Amino acid sequence: MCAKGICYGQADVSLMQPYQEQFQEIKKQLPEEAFFYSSPLERCTILADFLSTSNFTTDKRLMEMDFGSWELKSWDEIPKEEMDPWMNDFVNVKVPEGESFEIMNDRVLSFIDEKLTEVSKPIVIVSHAGVIRSFLCKQMNLPLKEAFSNKVDFGQVIKINL
């Protein structure tokens, strides 16, 4: 796990121990019969492995936003001339060597469109806050610029009907 104040999206950081008790609480909230999908990043696959008894599929479209050259830097050390345009329009402005929220959203919607047509039972997705916010924007028909109005906590189970 990264220290507070560090920018990370697709950097493969691990989970802070202990997490087994929280995993048990999450599992209690899930349907017994489900297909499990996970971001391939370790902080998600550890949970997906626990929840699905090792029966899950990873999909790169479920990865967090790519923060490019900002990955693993302190938010304070990111140059203001790079940060300000993104902060003013994170939906459309790409992070240097990374992606914009819109690019991430496009890959998330691709996953949604594909899975909605091929899956017949509930889906459990283990992913990241940005991806979950993207799902919620779709569900609530919110513009992407409102994505951060969706509060997403670590280990939170959010039920989405699309």
Gap from first CA to last CA: 32 Å
Q: SS-based structural class?
A: mainly alpha
Count of runs of 4 or more consecutive helical residues? 5
Tertiary shape: globular
Low-confidence stretches: none
Spell out the helices and strands N to C.
HEHEHHEH
Helix content: 25-40%
Q: How can the largest sheet be summarized?
A: 3 strands, parallel
Round the mean pLDDT to the nearest integer and report it: 91
The percent range for strand residues is 5-15%
For the biggest β-sheet, the strand order reads: 2-1-3
Number of strands: 3
Rg over CA atoms: 16 Å
Describe the structure.
By secondary structure, the chain is mainly alpha-helical. The protein is built from five helices and three strands, in the order αβαβααβα. It has a three-stranded parallel beta sheet. Strand 1 (35-38), helix 2 (42-52) and strand 2 form a beta-alpha-beta unit. Helix 4 (101-118) crosses helix 5. The mean pLDDT is 91.
